[in-house]
Amino acid sequence: MTKMLNVSATGATDPDQVLIDLQRELWSRGIVLKQKGYTLRGKVADPLGKAKMSFELEVCMIQSLNMVGIRRKRLEGDAWCYKRICEQVLRLAGQQTAV
Asked: Which residues form the KA1 domain (predicted)?
């Protein structure tokens, strides 16, 4: 059984669309992303280019709900910055549910 900690349900059933929406949202906020499969690694830098915070988001299926989820993980850096990113992800997840 997969751990469901730090997973936000989106209400969507198409993981590809959720991934595209996540990329668009994060890029619009100037977050540098690397993608491997359904996992996005993001990095937020200060004006000097030093990493302020890095995180990982994985688009996954929540089998019990038959919908797409977003698993969140802070890799390093500022916890408050990570909190703001998570709030944006949760807001996006809420928009997916409303659609």
From this structure: 46-95
Helical ranges in the chain per DSSP H:
15-28, 79-98
Q: Which two tokens stand for residue 87?
A: 């709030």
Record the pTM: 0.82
The answer to whether the CB of 10 falls within 8 A of the CB of 18 is yes
Supply the pLDDT for residue 56.
95
CA dist 41 and 68 (Å) reads 18
Q: What pLDDT score was predicted for residue 96? A: 57
Pairing of strands 67-77, 51-62: antiparallel
List the beta bridge partners of residue 51: 45
